[in-house]
Amino acid sequence: MTKTIFNLTLPTVASIIEDILETYPDHPYQQAFSIPDLRQELIAHVLSRVSNCYVVVEEGEQQSINFQSLACSLKDRSCIEDLIHQGIEKIMYQRERELSLQIPETEDPGLAPSHWFG
Length: 118
What we know:
two-stranded antiparallel sheet; 2 strands; mainly alpha; 51% helix; 5 helices
């Protein structure tokens, strides 16, 4: 049977990113990081700056890995959270022009022309 190297840090980082993004406003943050490429860029930003933990598993056994038992320490989690916040701001800044085209500003309904002559 084939063995596969599996990054145990990846699911933890992805889960923490999900939790943190829920605390950000929908526009533009949650909308921006719902774009798969930007989400992957954020994950890569964090993973490249933390110690990663790997295991070798038989092919098809990845589902049997108990991620709850791999909970990171509070210090590690705090470091990951800081890196996520930094990554979010860095990516939003670097991709500002691109995102302004992909995610239009939300309009205040009171400023829409249909309400001017109500």
